[in-house]
Specification:
With 235 residues, the chain is α/β, with parallel strands linked by helices. 59% of the residues lie in helices and 10% in strands. It folds into two domains: 111 residues, Resolvase, N-terminal catalytic domain (Rossmann fold, 3-Layer(aba) Sandwich); 69 residues.
Length: 235
Amino acid sequence: MLERFVAYYRVSTRAQGTSGLGIEAQKDAVLKYLGAGTNVLAEFIEVESGRRSDRPALERALAAARVHRAALVVAKVDRLTRSVAFLSRLLEAGVDVRFADLPAIVGPTGRFMLQQMAAVAELEAGLISSRTKAALAAAKARGQKLGGDKGARLSSDAKAAGRAAQSRQAMLRALDLAPLLSELERDGNRTAKELANALTSLRIPTARGRTEWSDVQVMRIKRRLVGQVSNKLSQ
């Protein structure tokens, strides 16, 4: 059976997206990597910063790859993400990812290499954190005053701001999952339990990074989406 692919391209600015600058170079790189006669089922273009983790076009590309059991192909690693957490999330999404600039990353060996890349980046972040903590501890030992009263309580405004930030993150996550939930519903998964089982089978990570979903989690997401629609209609 001919191997199937879903292509994903990303540019950082709308000018690049409109003019095609950057996109055409990525398409050429993917074409050279795959070769003539390859079965590319769909192409998805994202105009978004690489620092953002909410990528609607990427979510649709991943969903298409899962539905068709195709591999996701990207021109360069940095076109996908430079974020360790996002790369880890992608690895948990259950999709085979290929990079035109790293042709050796294929199958289980390629997945292992990606995991090692994420692990090295995470180690570097951890070492930086450890060095910062050590420097602060040394400064404190010298008698240098650091920060304020450690026993101070958060103000009600600070607590409210924290809850608002958590709510925004939860809403962003719900909006990211909306296209996939709609597709799963079209495939016959009508109840929250059926949707939860489908998300689990697709290895879509939950907000806490787990891959086992419950019907309660699905209902919370759907309530957030309904609330978002209601808010827009009332504006």
